[in-house]
Design a protein that fits this description.
Elements: H1 7-22, H2 27-32, E1 39-46, E2 50-51, H3 55-65, E3 70-73, E4 80-81, E5 86-93, H4 94-124, E6 131-133, H5 143-153, E7 166-168, H6 170-176, H7 179-187, E8 196-200, H8 203-211, E9 216-220, H9 224-237, E10 242-246, H10 254-258, E11 264-266, H11 269-272, E12 279-283
Parallel strand pairs: 6-11, 7-8, 8-9, 9-10, 10-11
Antiparallel strand pairs: 1-5, 1-12, 2-4, 3-5
Helix pairs in contact: 1-3, 1-4, 3-4, 4-5, 8-9
Length: 285
């Protein structure tokens, strides 16, 4: 189940983005409604098929501008939509509706695009034990929401930041002088129960990671045939070690990777290669 950050976290982000868009004031809307308080209603319409994510965030955008705005999703987070389908209806003061329109739509279209592509990846391996995992390749400032969208689409979150878990990558290994030395030095300082993951690209590196009791071994950019050998090696030597595959994962290759027996498949593609889902806001519908 996808979980949004609490209002104390989410609202600070939304305030920032609203201020960026509104600036010193909405010249158009405030000029039109300077002398009156007018209200209206309308709908959000999907212009293409996809998976919806972000309507609850959109509702919060309008609420922050005016608590009198009623924004009601007509589809649940993670549900599919079709072209011309109404996905939300709203009622409230025009100034709040029009000032919040762009921020609310931009967020929902972006997050729905991520959820849509994530769902396509997740469905490719839905009948296999391997789980789809996102990465830290996110837009600065949007990580919490982009990772929320991958959850909506059917993935699970990898670490949110550098403080979540230890991941020893190729540059760490090079700087430390080897996998064994890197694990030994890090294990002395990290708190319990933080895990240690090691990135490997060869079977020799896999052997070294096993020998030094890595908690998770990442098989990075390995051909499927080599990955199969690595998975069997890890399972025989230490079945408690979790195995993650990463690198060049596409909709065409993800199933073959999952069939090697890995526990997790991490990919940045659902975020970095997604396109916005086209939505529109229509007053008076």
């Amino acid at each position: 189940m996808a979980i949004l950050p609490p209002p104390i976290v989410l609202d600070s982000l939304l305030h920032q983005w609203l201020k960026e868009d509104i600036g010193r004031g909405d010249r158009t809307t405030q000029a039109l409604f300077a002398q009156e308080v007018s209200s209206g209603n309308g709908q959000w319409i999907a212009k293409q098929a996809g998976t919806i994510a972000g309507l609850t965030i959109a509702a919060r955008v309008f609420y922050l501008l005016n608590e009198k705005v009623s924004f009601i999703p007509l589809v649940a987070e993670g549900e599919s939509c079709q072209p011309s389908q109404a996905i939300a209806r709203f009622h409230g003061p025009f100034d709040a509706l029009l000032m919040g329109e762009r921020v609310a739509l931009n967020l929902t279209m972006s997050l729905s695009g991520i959820a849509t592509l994530t769902r396509q990846y997740a469905e490719k391996i839905a009948d296999l034990p391997a789980q789809l995992v996102d990465t830290r390749k996110t837009t600065p400032g949007l990580r919490l929401l982009e990772k929320y969208a991958t959850q909506v689409g059917g993935a699970i979150n990898h670490r949110m930041g550098l403080d979540d878990a230890v991941m020893i990558k190729d540059n760490h290994i090079q700087a430390a002088g080897g996998i064994g030395e890197a694990i030994a030095r890090i294990r002395k300082t990290i708190p319990y129960p933080m895990t240690i993951e090691v990135e490997t690209t060869t079977l020799a590196e896999v052997e070294e990671a096993i020998a030094h009791n890595a908690d998770i071994i990442m098989l990075d950019n390995m051909p499927v045939e080599q990955m199969e050998v690595a998975v069997k090696l890890i399972r025989v030597r230490n079945n408690n070690i979790k195995i993650e595959a990463s690198g060049n994962v596409t909709l065409k290759t993800i199933r073959a990777v999952a069939e090697t027996g890995v526990d997790y498949i991490s990919s940045s593609a659902p975020i970095t290669r997604s396109s916005w889902l086209d939505l529109s806001m229509r007053l008076g519908s």
